[in-house]
Design goal:
- By secondary structure, the protein is an alpha/beta fold.
- It contains five helices and five strands.
- Strand 1, helix 1 and strand 2 form a beta-alpha-beta unit.
- Helix 2 runs parallel beside helix 3.
């Protein structure tokens, strides 16, 4: 599966990309903010987007809403250093397939949500 990693911290993007690649995902790109993410979703057409909830220009919920409105929407998995319960119903309302905490990120967790 082709995946795009979106997070404003370059170090997390690098770790997430390495972890996901080691678990069989093909990392097709990385983005550091919502605007860049939307551009790459359009141009790269990833199957999956690992999307941080907290981005500098717009939150991950808004990025998900916009990305899922496209012609060939990707499957979106939200992530954060915070727990999912802190976001209440926002995760479900976003249209994302689910949520994986950053400290629990692994290919199996993402795959379980997108298959």
């Amino acid at each position: 599966m082709r995946i795009l990693v979106v997070d404003d911290h370059p170090s997390f993007r690098a770790v997430a990309s390495a972890v996901l690649a080691a678990d069989g995902f093909v990392v097709v790109g990385e983005a550091g903010d919502g605007g860049a993410a939307l551009e790459l979703i359009e141009s790269l057409r990833p199957d999956v987007v690992l999307l941080d909830v907290h981005l500098p220009d717009m939150d991950g919920f808004e990025v998900a809403r916009r990305a899922l409105g496209g012609a060939r929407p990707p499957r979106i998995v939200l992530t954060s250093s915070r727990d999912a319960f802190e976001f209440g119903p926002l995760v479900a309302a976003s249209g994302a397939r689910g949520f994986v905490a950053k400290d629990e990120l692994c290919g199996a967790a993402v795959a379980a949500l997108v298959h």
